[in-house]
Amino acid sequence: MNISDTDLLGKPLTESERELLHVYQALKQLAAREDLPPCAASNVRKALSAMWQVTNDLDLQFEQLYDLGV
Amino acid sequence: MAYSEYWNPKNETLPREELQALQLLKLRRLCERAYATTPFHRKRFDAAGFRPDQLNTLDDLRRIPFMTREEWMDSQLATPLFGDLLATEQANAIRYHLTSGTTGRTPIRVLDSMKDWDWISEMWCYGFWAFGVRPADIVYFAFGYGSFIGFWGAHYCCEKMGALVIPGGAQTSEGRIKQIIEMRATTVCSTPTYALHLWQKAREMGVDLAREGRVNKLILSGEPAGSIPAVKRQLEEAWGAKCADTAGMTEVGTIMIFECSHQPGGTHIIEDHYIEEVIDPRTDQPVGYGELGERVVTSFGRGFIPVIRYRTKDMVMKVPANTCTCGRTWDLYEGGIRGRWDDMKLIRGTNVYPRAVEAIIREHPAIDEFQIYIWRKDGQQDEITIKLEVKPGHEAEWAELQQQLTQDLSSAHEGLRFNIERMDYGQLPHFELKAKRLVDVRPIAQYE
Predict the structure, then answer these.
(1) Domains along the sequence of chain B with CATH
(2) Residue B307, SS3?
(3) Residues of chain B whose pLDDT is less than 50?
(4) What letter would DSSP give residue B191?
(5) What pLDDT sits at residue B60?
(6) What per-residue confidence (pLDDT) applies to B1?
(7) Which of A26, B101, B332, B377 would disulfide-bridge B381, Cβ 3.0–4.6 Å?
(8) For position B104, what pLDDT does the model report?
């Protein structure tokens, strides 16, 4: 998984920011899978939505997730 | 548990140069995406000769054409139901809301996705946290929970924080008062008008909210009155609680501004998620700090319907962040939203703004409800009448009240004569959501 070393302003990530971004990217990968049962797929999207907000607030990404249904 | 004073310390205290760099980066990406995905914006950008790669500084923002409510409505009428504004397929939406449409205009219809709703509630979190709402709070929503977006986002914000939420929908005012007392609510959310109404209703029930309730925070939205000092003073005394103003709009789905616990007499702008410009509505040119102008909003949040340089017609005055002592680096609107540019009425050559009239009326706690009634006498002369209801138990104050109001309103309006008329209690409409107190029955001019 490719994780950026900096935030949107080019500042180095803190340890917690790196971990948060890692979780966000992992959820994106899970949400893209087609083999998850509805209970997993729906709750993964909900978790991804929450992590999108965390990483958005902390300037770690500025992107949309509509292609993942989020 | 010790909490941070800020919901998002990183961005709420970001130095302004960095904040502006962040805004520029987000603006460029927003415009690139809007151009690529939204026919509405692509047509407008092309017509104005604007390309997202022209955004090299924040001042380049002014190359982007303004977006108006009229364009939005026209697009919806041409291509029902949502016009050509959607940036993604309707299948990605989880919620539908619309403006109230009470002015007879086409309502603005909006869709949002799952993460858009996380963002909508997040904006409320900035405001609620800044005013001191914490997980231990018990938050009561005096709100109807319908298609109007209202406090929906605030409800989810409180759930996100871990506060106990009491949804007070579809109840009588008496029922709501009983629940607020019984559940020992610490925070109540409503319009300013309805908070005043609840207090009056509680008095009729023999309930002293300040003494018998546990409410220490009133969070207001939906009307400019939340920042009118006299309204605030009345509410704070009546409820025994601190009072905070917030303001949002259906077009962006949530709030853009909030008052922090330092109560600086204005509302902070959530500047990591919005660009808020203030322009002269006559020349379309930007105005500086301390000058009245029209709010123009660009949102970095709602992705389903990009909102870029949207003319709100809201009247505001921006002041620098250091006007407040809370440490946030975000600028403020002194006095919140001061009304609307299109609310102004011309009476015998004098400009009258409903909010300015309300500010004077609310200096008199004996007044309950009121209406600003504009009419034409003998088909020739415009007249303005303030119709008033006096609170039960204050009837003896009427004569003095009438004289004082006539004088105060006149001296604040270049000597314009106001008629003051007392109505029986309960005769005027009372409101739960946005109050509509301006009635203009003058004939509309017809031109052949």
Answers:
(1) 1-338 (3.40.50.12780), 344-440 (3.30.300.30)
(2) coil
(3) 446-448
(4) -
(5) 98
(6) 77
(7) B377
(8) 59
Q: How far is CA B319 from CA B151, B212, B278, in A?
A: 27, 39, 11
Spatial distance between the Cα atoms of B292 and B279, rounded to a whole number of angstroms: 8
Number of other residues whose CB lies within 10 A of the CB of residue B153: 21
Residue B408 burial (C-beta neighbours within 10 Å; 0-12, 13-18, 19+): middle
* Mean pLDDT score across all residues of chain A: 96
Query: How far is the C-alpha of B351 from the C-alpha of B418, rounded, in Å?
Result: 13
CA dist., res. B30 & res. B310, Å (int)? 14
**Contacts of residue A9 in chain B, CB cutoff 8 Å?**
18, 21-22, 25
- Interface contact B118-A50, CB threshold 8 A: yes
How far B333 CA sits from the closest chain A CA (Å)?
A: 22
Span B269-306, pLDDT tens digits: 999 999 999 999 999 999 999 999 999 999 999 899 99
Contact call for B11 and A66, based on CB within 8 A: no
Phi and psi at B117, nearest 5°, equal -70, -30
Cα radius of gyration rounded to whole Å, chain A? 12
d(CA B426, CA B414): 32
DSSP B313: E
Residue type, B21: A
Taking CB atoms and an 8 Å limit, are A62 and B88 in contact across chains?
Answer: no
SS3 assignment, position A60:
coil
- Do the Cβ atoms of B114 and A69 come within 8 Å? yes
